[in-house]
Amino acid sequence: MGFFGLIPASELAASYNVRTRKLTLYAAGDVHEHTRAIAFHRAPLMGGLEFTLDGWSGPFTSRTIHYTHSQDFDIQLPNPITPSNTVTILDANNGKGKTIPIRFLGGI
Length: 108
Known about the structure:
The chain is mostly beta strands. It is 0% helix and 63% strand. The chain is built from no helices and eight strands. The chain has strands at residues 3-6, 11-17, 22-32, 35-43, 50-57, 64-74, 86-91, 94-105. Strands 1, 2, 3, 4, 5, 6, 7 and 8 form an eight-stranded mixed sheet that branches. The protein is elongated, with a radius of gyration of 15 Å.
């Protein structure tokens, strides 16, 4: 049996390529051995960028594994609706979210 929910991250980062207009989110950490389908999902937030870091876990054992995950999102930054210098990521260690600075790449 598997369970879907927030997974823990010990490292979080964000970058934006101004030429390709892609926001890349990165996470790393330790999860239960049978955790699969790790992904960022955009969450609705007025006036900001918010994502959850989720995965399917189970069956549970006492063993953990280290993971790294990066994922691209097509988005144009800056824009008048969302601030362009930070993103908030909710994970199992930061249920209320952790604000991450966005590193801009590619020049203008």
